[in-house]
Write a structure and sequence with these properties.
The complex is a heterotrimer of chains A (345), B (345) and C (613). Chain A contains 11 helices and 12 strands. Chain A is α/β, with parallel strands linked by helices and 345 residues long. Chain A folds into 2 domains: 153 residues, 3-Layer(aba) Sandwich (Rossmann fold); 171 residues, Glycogen Phosphorylase B (Rossmann fold, 3-Layer(aba) Sandwich). Chain A has a 6-stranded parallel beta sheet, with helices on both faces. In chain A, strands 9-8-7-10-11-12 form a 6-stranded parallel beta sheet, sandwiched between helices. Chain B has 345 residues and is α/β, with parallel strands linked by helices. In chain B, strand 1, helix 1 and strand 2 form a beta-alpha-beta unit. In chain B, helix 8 crosses helix 10 and helix 9 packs across helix 10. Chain C folds into 3 domains: 187 residues, Rossmann fold, CATH 3.40.50.11930; 176 residues, Glycogen Phosphorylase B (Rossmann fold); 124 residues, Immunoglobulin-like. Helices cover 38% and strands 19% of the residues of chain C. In chain C, helix 1 crosses helix 18 and helix 3 crosses helix 4. Classes of the chains: A alpha/beta (345), B alpha/beta (345), C alpha/beta (613). At the A-B interface, strand 1, strand 2 and helix 2 of A face strand 2 and helix 2 of B.
C-alpha cells in the first residue's frame, strides 16, 4: 500500500512523536509498503493561529495515497477517505488542561469560542477516520470522556526491540532519558542519602536546562554522593544506553503525571529489569505494578531510597520482577508486528 | 542563522527538486546554520489549486526562522518577512506549455479564468520575496517573459562532487537519467545504428513505468544493436553511477527542452567527460559549449552518431573536451560557497 | 471593557439622546467613549472624542474591546459613521429599518456617484432592484425613497451590516430580516425608556379626569406615515367625538402635508378640536406629554427600528394607540391599544373606547408604565453588555473568514465561483457542533414531495423544488462524518434494473433537520444522456451508509417522466451569485452555511432573545 503518515510540525522541534513516525515508516517499509511522512506545520500562538492551522490542514489534498495514518492535532483533520488515527495528542489545552494554569487559551469569549471550535471539530472530523487507535489508555479515556469516541490502545514499541537485552544484574539503578524537572531526577539523587545497601545510581541523558544540571550537580556535591551517584549529563548513544540497561540491577522512572508509560519502561523490560516508579507518575502504572514488575512508591526521597535498597537486598525478587516485566510487554502484544497489522488492516 | 527551507511535494514522487532541497539543507548546516525543512503536499490539478494555495497562506512561519528559502512552486506563497525564492519551474501547463497539447488547465471559460488567477497569485507571492533566484537562464527568462520578474541565475551544485572521478576514456558513451520519453534515450539508441567507430552506448536509470523501459529494449532488439547497447533499467547506487562515468568515453544527455542543465551535466564534468547534447535540449546549452567542453548537434540520429564517432576516433579530443568540462562548473561559479553566500546575504 | 461609541451627538437627534442615556448606563461597568464629529456636540459627562477636524485615527480603535456604530436614515448624522464602519468592524445598532434615503443621499449628494447606488441595489436585490433603482435615477419613476411601498421592499439596511461583527435591532421582525441575509450574532432589544422620563411622569390615576375635552396627543416629526390625517378624518366623521376631545400635534410638519391637514381641518370644521402646534421647545413638549389623556402613535409604513417617542409615552403612563405593524405589533397585549390598519373602523373604535372610559385609560396606562419601567436604559445596557460577549465569541470565526477572504482577494481568486462556498463551508464546519453519525434503518424515515416536470432534456441540469419532512426521531444534516444528502436515481421503465446514469447529483440539506421538521429545497438534477421513458426516484442518501429508498420505498417520491433530445431554447437557471464576487468578503457564502452554526441539536435558539416575556 502507499501509506502517508501525517504528523504535525513545529519547526526545529523533533520529539517523541517525530521519532515514532520515523520508526513506523521504517517498519512499514520493511514489510514492503511504500511510505512517506507528511508534516503539516502547526502554530498555536496567538490563539487565532489555532483555527488558521486547523483550516490549513483541512485544505491539504493528498493524492494517490492508499492509506493515511494520522498522529496529532491538527494534522488529523487532513481529508482522506481511508484514514486511521494513531492518536498521540489532542490539543490538551482545550480538554484536560482547560481550567488549569496550562490552558494557554485566554479566558475570554474569544478563547472560549476557539476551545469550542476545537472540541466540535474533533467531534466531527475524528469520526471520519475508519478506526481510531491511541498510544495509551489515558489518551483513550480522554477521547471517550470529552468526545464520546471509542478507541483502541495500540502501544508504541521501541524502535529496535531486539537490541535491548540482559547481561547481568549489576549494582546500579539506571535512570536514562530526558533530564528535566518533570522527570524528577533530583528526587532520585536525593534518595541516595537514604540508601544503605551500597546500591549506586546512574543518571544518563542530556539535561534540558543549565539550571537543572546545576541543581543535580550541587545535590551530589552537598550530600557527598560522588561515589554513589554517576551523572552522565550528556547525549548518550543508543549503544551506550543499551549497554547500561544490560548491566543494571534495576531502573527508575519517576516523571510527574505522564500520559503514557514511556519508552523507558519498555527499554527496562526488554532488558528484563524491574522498574521503580511513583504513585503519581501517571501512565507508567499501567505496566509497572507494585511487587510484580517493579516498586511503586510515594514520590519522596525516603521511599525511593528504600525501594532502591530493596532491589539490592532482595535480588531474587528483583530478577523475577524484571522477567515478569518482559511478560507484561509480551502479554500486551507491544510489537511492531501488532502495530503494522492494526494500522494497515 | 535559523533558516527554513520550504517546498511543495507530491507524495511518492521525488524529483530533482528533492535532491536540491536535501543538499541545500545539508550544506546550510555545514556552513553553521540551524536549518529545518517544510515540505507541503500539493496536488497540481488546477481546479484543486486555489483551495490548497489558501491553505499555504494560512500557515504561519513568520517567527520560526530568520530566513525562509522556498523552492518548488507554489511554496513561495508561504508568508515570511524575509523570504527568498530559488525558483526551479512554474506549473508549466499554465505557462510555457500553454497552447500545446500539454496545457493545463484547458481553455474553457473557467480554465482561462483559473489560469489568469494562478499567474496573478504567483506574481503576488513572488513580489513578496526579498530576492528571487532561478536555477537556470531558461527559467529566469520564463519568469521575465511571463511574470515580468527579474531573477538572478543561481545554479544548483551537485550534492557530492568528491565521489566522481575519471579513471580512463573507455569505449562507451554513457547516458544516465530516468528512462522517460522526454529524456530521449530512444533517440540515442537510434543513433547507434549509424555509428562506425565501434563505440558502445550504456544507458542507465530507473523508469517511472516499465513500458518505457520495455520499448527501449524492443528498439534495441529491433535494430539488432544488442552488442552495442547496454540498458541498465533499474536504480543504481551512487558508487555504480560514479564508476560508469569514470570509465566512459563521454556522456550523452539529450533531453527535449529541459529547464536546466541537470545534475547529469555536472556529474560528467566532475568525471572529466565531455557532454554530447542537442540544440533543442534547453538548459544544457547554458553549460555545454560546442567544441570546447562538449558537442552540440541537431536532434537526429545521424548527427549524434557522428558526434560519438568523432570522440571515439579522436580520444585525445575527447580527453581535451573532458578536461575543459571539468573546469566549467568553476567558470560558471557553480558551487555551494557561492549558493550559500547568495542565499544568506 | 473599553467601548468606542460612534453616534450623532446633538440636541435634535433622538439617536443622540439614546446614545447619551445608554452610554451613561454602560459606563457604570465599562469605559465608554463617545466618538462624534459634531460642530457643537451636546454636553455630557461621558468622555467624548471629536474627530471633526481630523480623520479619526482608526488604529487607536485597536485598544478598545469593541466599536459600536449607531446607524439611522439621516445622512448628515451618520455619513462618517458609515465610512468608519467600512474600515473597522464593529457592532452595528440599526435604528431604522429603511436606509434608502441615507444611501441615495450618500451616493448622489456626497459622493456624486449614482452608479455606486445602482451597484448597491444590484448587489442586494438583483436585477429587479437594479432596474427599479435605475428607473428612479433616470427619472422614469419616482425615486424608491419617495415610494412608501418600494422603500420597504428595498430597505438597504443590508449595506450597513456587511462588515459588522454583530447587529442590534429593536424589533424581532427586523431581527428576522437581518438573519435572513446575514451570518453573525443578532440581538433584538426593546428600545429603552429613560430614567428621567419615568421620574417625570405623573401617576396614571392623576391623569384620568373626566374633563369636558380630553387631550389626544401625537408627537414627533409630522411625516405622512404618522397618519395624522386619519385621526383628523375620524374626528371629522364623528363630530360627537370631536367635541369631547382636543387633538394636539407637536412637532414640525412638512409644508405640503401641513397644507393637506389644514384643508382637512377646514373641511370638517375642526378648528376647535385640532391644534397643529408645530415645533415646540422641550419643556412645552414634556408638559403636554404629562397632561395628555391619550396618545396616538401611528406608523404606516413602519420605517423605524424602535420608537423613542413610544417609550416616552409609555414611560409617561399614558395609553397609546398604535397600528399592529412592525415593532408596535410586538408589544405585549394590554400595554397598548393595537389597531388593524386595514380595518377602516379600527381607529375610530379605539379612540371612542379610550375617550369613553377612564378605567380603560388607567388600566392600559398602568400596564404601559410597568413595561417602560422594566425595559429601561439600565436593562438595555445590561443586555447590551451580554451581547458584546456573544459578539466576542463570534470573532474567531469572523476573523478567520476575513483572513481567508483577504487571501482569496490578494491572490486574485475572487472570480472562482465555488471556492468561496467551499471556504465558507469549511470555516463554518470548524465552528459548528453538527455531527452526522451513521443512521440505523429505523432512523431513516422521511416524506418527500417534489414538483417534477413531465419531461427532461438529455444530459442537462435542472433545478427542482421539493419538500422534505423528517418523520424520524433523529436529526438529519449534510455534515461529516456521514452526510445525509438529497439525491435521486433514474430507472428506465423498460429495464427494471436501476441506474441509467448512475447515482444522482447531491444537494445539501438547507438546514439541520430536527425530528418532525419540514423544509423546502431546490435540488440539482442531471437528466440521463439517453432518450426514453424513465422513472425518477427522489430520495435521501447517507454517504457510505444507505439510500433511504432502499430501506423503505415510502422514503422516496416517484414520478414517470420522458427524457428527450435537446431542442432549441431551454433556460438553465444560473447559479452564479449576484453582484460582484470580488466584493464579497465571504459574507454571502458564510450566510449560506449559517444553518450549520445555529441549527445544532442542542438548545433551539429562539428568534428574539432580547424581546420575550
Amino acid at each position: 500500500m502507499k501509506i502517508a503518515i501525517v504528523n504535525n510540525q513545529v519547526p526545529f522541534v523533533y520529539g517523541g512523536a517525530e521519532f515514532l513516525a520515523d520508526w513506523l515508516r521504517e517498519h512499514l517499509l520493511a514489510v514492503g509498503h511504500s511510505c512517506e511522512i507528511v508534516r503539516v506545520p502547526f502554530k498555536w500562538n496567538p490563539p487565532h493561529n489555532i483555527v488558521n492551522h486547523m483550516l490549513a490542514a483541512r485544505l491539504i489534498k493528498l493524492s494517490s495515497i492508499d492509506r493515511v495514518i494520522a498522529l496529532k492535532f491538527p494534522a488529523y483533520y487532513v481529508e482522506h477517505d481511508n484514514k486511521v488515527l494513531w492518536l498521540l495528542h489532542q490539543f490538551r489545552q482545550a480538554y484536560d488542561l482547560w481550567g488549569t494554569p496550562y490552558q494557554e487559551l485566554p479566558d475570554t469569549p474569544e478563547g472560549l469560542a476557539i476551545r469550542t471550535a476545537i472540541i466540535n471539530a474533533d467531534n466531527r472530523y475524528l469520526r471520519c477516520a475508519r478506526k481510531i487507535y491511541t498510544n495509551s489508555s489515558v489518551v483513550s479515556a480522554r477521547l471517550s470522556e470529552f468526545n464520546g469516541i471509542s478507541s483502541m490502545v495500540l502501544y508504541p514499541p521501541l524502535r529496535d526491540e531486539g537490541a535491548y537485552h540482559c547481561e547481568r544484574y549489576g549494582d546500579y539503578i539506571l535512570c536514562a532519558g530526558r533530564v528535566n524537572e518533570v522527570k524528577r531526577q533530583h528526587l532520585l539523587v536525593e534518595a541516595m542519602r537514604f540508601v544503605q545497601s551500597g546500591v549506586r545510581l546512574i543518571v544518563a541523558g542530556q539535561p534540558e536546562s543549565q539550571a537543572y544540571l546545576d541543581r543535580l550537580v550541587s545535590l551530589v556535591k552537598n550530600d557527598h554522593l560522588e561515589d554513589k551517584v554517576d551523572l552522565k549529563m550528556r547525549f548518550v548513544s543508543e549503544e551506550e544506553k543499551i549497554s547500561l540497561y544490560a548491566g543494571a540491577l534495576a531502573t527508575a522512572y519517576i516523571p510527574y503525571d505522564e500520559d503514557s508509560y514511556g519508552y523507558v519502561s519498555l527499554e527496562s523490560f526488554h532488558s528484563r529489569k524491574a522498574v521503580i516508579t511513583c504513585s503519581d507518575s501517571g501512565g507508567i502504572r499501567e505496566i509497572v505494578r507494585d511487587s510484580i514488575s517493579g516498586y511503586v512508591v510515594s514520590p519522596t526521597p525516603a521511599a525511593l531510597g528504600k525501594a532502591m535498597d530493596l532491589m539490592m537486598l532482595d535480588r531474587p525478587s528483583t530478577e523475577q520482577m524484571g522477567n515478569q516485566g518482559l511478560q507484561e510487554v509480551v502479554k500486551r502484544s507491544i510489537s511492531w508486528d501488532t502495530v503494522i497489522r492494526e494500522l494497515t488492516a | 542563522m535559523k533558516i527554513i527551507v520550504a517546498t511543495t511535494m507530491v507524495p511518492f514522487q521525488s524529483g530533482g527538486d528533492a535532491v536540491m532541497l536535501d543538499s541545500l539543507t545539508e550544506m546550510l548546516r555545514q556552513f553553521g546554520h540551524t536549518t529545518d525543512t517544510v515540505r507541503i503536499p500539493f496536488s497540481s490539478v488546477p481546479a484543486d489549486m486555489p483551495a490548497q494555495m489558501i491553505g499555504i497562506r494560512l500557515i504561519d512561519l513568520c517567527d520560526d526562522a530568520e530566513l525562509l528559502i522556498t523552492i518548488r512552486t507554489p511554496s513561495y506563497l508561504l508568508r515570511h518577512p524575509n523570504k527568498i525564492s530559488w525558483f526551479i519551474h512554474h506549473h508549466r501547463g499554465a505557462y510555457d506549455l500553454w497552447g500545446t497539447k500539454y496545457q493545463d488547465p484547458q481553455s474553457t471559460e473557467e480554465g482561462l479564468r483559473l489560469r489568469h488567477s494562478l499567474m496573478g497569485a504567483d506574481e503576488a507571492a513572488l513580489a513578496e520575496c526579498r530576492r528571487i533566484f532561478a536555477n537556470s537562464r531558461v527559467v529566469s527568462d520564463r519568469l521575465y517573459d511571463f511574470n515580468g520578474i527579474k531573477a538572478k541565475v543561481l545554479y544548483p551544485p551537485l550534492p557530492h562532487t568528491d565521489r566522481f572521478f575519471c579513471s580512463d576514456y573507455g569505449d562507451y558513451v554513457v547516458c544516465i537519467s530516468r528512462i522517460v520519453s522526454h529524456k530521449r534515450q530512444a533517440l540515442a539508441v537510434e543513433s547507434m545504428r549509424h555509428v562506425k567507430s565501434g563505440v558502445r552506448l550504456v544507458i542507465a536509470g530507473p523508469s517511472d513505468d516499465q513500458q518505457e523501459a520495455n520499448s527501449l529494449h524492443s528498439l534495441v532488439k529491433h535494430y539488432g544493436l544488442e552488442d552495442r547497447v547496454e540498458i541498465i533499467d533499474h536504480w543504481i547506487s551512487d558508487e555504480q553511477k560514479a564508476r560508469l562515468y569514470a570509465s566512459s568515453l563521454a556522456c550523452i544527455y539529450i533531453p527535449v527542452d529541459e529547464d536546466s542543465y541537470g545534475y547529469v551535466s555536472l556529474e560528467s564534468a566532475y568525471s572529466r567527460k565531455a557532454i554530447i547534447t542537442c540544440t533543442d535540449s534547453g538548459g544544457t546549452l547554458e553549460f555545454v559549449e560546442h567544441g570546447i567542453n562538449g558537442l552540440i548537434v541537431h536532434p537526429n540520429s545521424e548527427e549524434l552518431a557522428m558526434a560519438m564517432d568523432e570522440l571515439m576516433f579522436g580520444k585525445d579530443f575527447a580527453r581535451q573536451l573532458g578536461e575543459a568540462a571539468s573546469c566549467r562548473p568553476g567558470e560558471m561559479n557553480i558551487s555551494w560557497d557561492h549558493v550559500i553566500r547568495e542565499l544568506t546575504l | 471593557m473599553r467601548i468606542a461609541w460612534f453616534t450623532p451627538f446633538n440636541d435634535r437627534s433622538a439617536i443622540a439622546e439614546f446614545s447619551a442615556q445608554i452610554a451613561l448606563a454602560l459606563s457604570m461597568t465599562a469605559d465608554v467613549e463617545i466618538w462624534t464629529n459634531e460642530i457643537s456636540p451636546m454636553s455630557s459627562s461621558i468622555p467624548t472624542i471629536n474627530y471633526r477636524h481630523a480623520q479619526p485615527n482608526l488604529d487607536t480603535l485597536n485598544q478598545y474591546d469593541i466599536a459600536v456604530y449607531n446607524f439611522g436614515n439621516y445622512l448628515a448624522y451618520h455619513d462618517t459613521i458609515y465610512e468608519v464602519s467600512k474600515q473597522r468592524r464593529g457592532l452595528v445598532i440599526l435604528h431604522d429599518r429603511v436606509m434608502q434615503h441615507f444611501f441615495a443621499g450618500y451616493h448622489f449628494v456626497k459622493q456624486r456617484n449614482p452608479q455606486a447606488y445602482l451597484d448597491m441595489m444590484r448587489r442586494f436585490y438583483g436585477w429587479k432592484g437594479y432596474l427599479r433603482a435605475k428607473a428612479g435615477v433616470d427619472g422614469n419613476k419616482p425615486g424608491i425613497w419617495d415610494d412608501d411601498l418600494e422603500v420597504g421592499r428595498y430597505p438597504l439596511f443590508e449595506e450597513c451590516i456587511v462588515n459588522a461583527e454583530g447587529v442590534v435591532v429593536h424589533s424581532s421582525s427586523q431581527a428576522r430580516l437581518v438573519r435572513d441575509g446575514w451570518c453573525g450574532p443578532v440581538r433584538a432589544l426593546h428600545f429603552p425608556s429613560y430614567a428621567g422620563n419615568l421620574a417625570a411622569a405623573p401617576d396614571p390615576g392623576v391623569r384620568a379626569t373626566n374633563r369636558e375635552r380630553l387631550t389626544i396627543l401625537t408627537i414627533g416629526h409630522g411625516n405622512r406615515n404618522k397618519r395624522i390625517h386619519e385621526v383628523i378624518r375620524v374626528l371629522g366623521e364623528d363630530q360627537a367625538l370631536a367635541r369631547r376631545s382636543r387633538y394636539v400635534v407637536i412637532g414640525p410638519i412638512e409644508s405640503s402635508y401641513r397644507a393637506e391637514l389644514m384643508h382637512l381641518i377646514d373641511r370638517y370644521s375642526l378648528a376647535d378640536s385640532v391644534d397643529l402646534m408645530g415645533y415646540q421647545p422641550d419643556d412645552i413638549l414634556r408638559r403636554y406629554v404629562a397632561m395628555s389623556d391619550v396618545f396616538v402613535n401611528l406608523r404606516l409604513p413602519s420605517m423605524e427600528g424602535g420608537s423613542a417617542s413610544l417609550m416616552l409615552e409609555m414611560a409617561a403612563g399614558g395609553p397609546v394607540i398604535v397600528y399592529d405593524v412592525g415593532v408596535f405589533a410586538e408589544l405585549p397585549e394590554g400595554t397598548v391599544i393595537k389597531v388593524n390598519p386595514s380595518a377602516p373602523e379600527g381607529l375610530h373604535v379605539a379612540l371612542d373606547r379610550l375617550l369613553s372610559s377612564a378605567d380603560l385609560r388607567v388600566k392600559v396606562g398602568t400596564a404601559a408604565r410597568a413595561f417602560a419601567v422594566k425595559w429601561n436604559e439600565k436593562r438595555y445596557a445590561q443586555e447590551f453588555l451580554s451581547f458584546i460577549d456573544e459578539v466576542k465569541s463570534w470573532r474567531p470565526l469572523l476573523t478567520l473568514s476575513d483572513t481567508v477572504a483577504g487571501h482569496i482577494r490578494w491572490m486574485g481568486f475572487g472570480e472562482q465561483v465555488d471556492l468561496g462556498n467551499q471556504m465558507a463551508r469549511e470555516i463554518c464546519g470548524l465552528f459548528s457542533t453538527a455531527v452526522s453519525e451513521r443512521l440505523t434503518p429505523d432512523q431513516c424515515k422521511v416524506r418527500i414531495d417534489a414538483t417534477i416536470p413531465a419531461s427532461f432534456i438529455c444530459g442537462k441540469l435542472t433545478l427542482l423544488d421539493c419538500t422534505v419532512q423528517n418523520v424520524s426521531d433523529t436529526f438529519l444534516c449534510s455534515e461529516l462524518p456521514y452526510p445525509v444528502h438529497l439525491s435521486y436515481r433514474w430507472k428506465s421503465t423498460f429495464d427494471s434494473t436501476a441506474a441509467a446514469s448512475g447515482d444522482g447529483n447531491r444537494t445539501r440539506l438547507p438546514c439541520m433537520m430536527a425530528p418532525g421538521l419540514s423544509t423546502q429545497c431546490r435540488m440539482e438534477v442531471l437528466a440521463p444522456d439517453a432518450e426514453g421513458e424513465f422513472e425518477i426516484i427522489v430520495t435521501l442518501v447517507q454517504e457510505s451508509v444507505a439510500w433511504f429508498n432502499d430501506i423503505d420505498a415510502s422514503n422516496a417520491y416517484f414520478a414517470k417522466v420522458k427524457v428527450v433530445r435537446a431542442d432549441s431554447s431551454d433556460s438553465l437557471e444560473s447559479r452564479t451569485s449576484l453582484g460582484s464576487r470580488a466584493d464579497s468578503i465571504l459574507g454571502e457564502e458564510l450566510h449560506l452555511h449559517r444553518p450549520l452554526l445555529t441549527d445544532a441539536p442542542r438548545a433551539p435558539t429562539d428568534l428574539s432573545q432580547g424581546i420575550s416575556e
